[in-house]
């Protein structure tokens, strides 16, 4: 790009992007270091101030000089002598580059470095594309490619993702292009024009990224193929020599500072928490001096996972591949829309290039490696935005592009970037929302139209679930609050909840209650919707039953070879009331409706109303208003099991009947079963019975009840146990009734 005005525009914008982090307080929500940031940040400070990679008390204190907000979690360290000497256990290269920036401006300095690297990527991408396109169009495409990308979020992380992106960008640019200067070159221009130097630098740059993740070395394929096709064997050797020399220097530096060739080899390695002002939490005690056996390193948590056999079968691989491309939290094309445009342009104009096909194959190799080798963690662990492991190689998609035509596709990509990446661009450190997470942006449209990654459900922060009998229901923390046997749903927008079952469900029966009458409640399961109109004058929390026939599950998948059926539930109550019973972080939860699972229609209609009372130690007299404990034993004489949780569970209750007084005490306290009771099985427990407040002669009736459905005697008389009892007035001056 030789246009001086264009270079001036880019320089001004780049300076602004690099400068603004210096005035920005890090880290934002959450207000502590996250993911692997503690190790990378402290390594940078340790290299700048102590010239070593040992993790000592002075290093721990440095965390709280800048981040005095609370406990720092997941500081990853290692030791080869039984935790007598502790080293930082992450690759040191990024921290070495960041050391002067951290020493000068702390965390803000590292963020400025990341933006400097990002600006460099935009410039190199523009220069690459300008070979076949107008300079302004090339720079516009490159700017959209890198800025409307999840990579922007990582510029605010004290993490090596942007560094690896820059290393791969530089490697591909130097390896796939020749010097663009014309005429005789002199001085440093001649040095830059040297093919050998450019190729050696290309290999060295890729080694920097591969030192963090060896699979990134697959990006060497297009460069090596180019040199081999052109029979430039000497230059191919130069590239390999540059990569090997850089790799050797990296290993030598690690050996000099830590005694191991890599942060992943040769020692015990784990993540620990640090409490202010710098106290380890959970760090193993070092063995006594002279205990050589205890000092031997176990060497776990190394790169051994790279060399094991793949764990994913065909079904799991196909499922994860779909999530990889279009997932709500991880989808490549949602978090990098220009990557999709690059693929389209490659198929339109670059499909005759063997080098570009090799590059596409290399990107596929990296993708398949993570999907096959770490199916439980291919997205980058609990600290991720988009796909943290794959973001480093996303710049490879830009080098698939030759001509940018038709130009009309460019506005489409910018619009898609605004829709999907806009929340990350304008809130890159995380949004200050209820239950904030790094993944809070998926609460916006249009992410809710993308598929949820069920294979990673337990590894995505911001969700919670409830086990209901043999079902698992889960949803977003800000929308969904498990509360005893109930599922509390937020008022306002529709709320998505997933029901996971190990068996197909022919139907679903729920009980709905709301604190706000006079509104419409809607409930859809697997696309089948039912609505309930609440009368304005009905009492709050009135129960309404909803029955839905389910033609098919929303999704079906396998877990460890076992089929799993998933049903998408969408519930909505427009109005609600604050719920005050939750934990501190749920205070004021805007309760719209209570959702209670009763079972399938067949389960609800099951004839389980047969109880045989084996024993009940009922005293002949009870103090008025007092509470007594009555040991009982009974047997399930029906042909269906008694559920012990959720809606429709079987509870033990009682009535206090008095001649001439209708229902003197009908709704006695409930006593839960300790567990589900199978047909023919017995159960022994203690019932808590509270006597009527009025003295007199009563008949105490012990009776099971199927909560929310029916009393046992109402369905099949003879299931209750009846005993006369005398309710005595409290003795004068005696103790008050127990509560």
Report the major sheet: 7 strands, antiparallel
Count of discrete structural domains: 4
Helix content: 25-40%
Overall geometric form:
elongated
> Helices and strands: which structural class?
alpha+beta
Proportion in β-strands: 15-25%
Question: What is the terminal separation in angstroms?
Answer: 83 Å
Q: Would you count the extended β strands for me?
A: 27
Q: Which residues form runs of ≥5 with pLDDT under 50?
A: 295-299
Q: What average pLDDT do the residues reach?
A: 89
Instruction: Determine the number of helices (DSSP H or I, runs of at least 4 residues).
Output: 20
Radius of gyration: 33 Å
SSE map:
Elements: H1 4-19, H2 37-49, H3 57-66, E1 72-79, E2 87-88, H4 93-129, H5 135-147, H6 151-154, H7 161-176, H8 188-193, H9 195-210, H10 221-229, H11 233-258, E3 268-275, E4 279-281, H12 314-326, H13 332-335, H14 337-350, H15 354-373, H16 395-398, H17 409-420, H18 422-426, E5 463-468, E6 471-476, E7 480-483, E8 486-490, E9 495-501, E10 507-513, E11 520-525, E12 528-533, E13 544-549, E14 555-559, E15 562-573, E16 577-579, E17 589-599, H19 601-605, E18 611-616, E19 621-623, E20 627-636, E21 650-658, E22 661-665, E23 671-672, E24 682-690, E25 696-706, E26 710-711, H20 712-715, E27 721-728
Helix pairs in contact: 1-4, 2-3, 2-4, 4-5, 4-7, 7-9, 9-11, 10-15, 12-15
Report on the structure:
By secondary structure, the protein is α+β, with helices and mostly antiparallel strands. The protein folds into four domains: 302 residues, no CATH class; 71 residues, no CATH class; 144 residues, Jelly Rolls, CATH 2.60.120; 118 residues, Immunoglobulins (Immunoglobulin-like), CATH 2.60.40. 33% of the residues lie in helices and 23% in strands. The protein contains 20 helices and 27 strands. A hairpin with a 2-residue loop joins strand 14 and strand 15. Helix 4 crosses helix 7, helix 9 packs across helix 11 and helix 12 crosses helix 15. It is elongated. About 1% of the residues have low confidence.
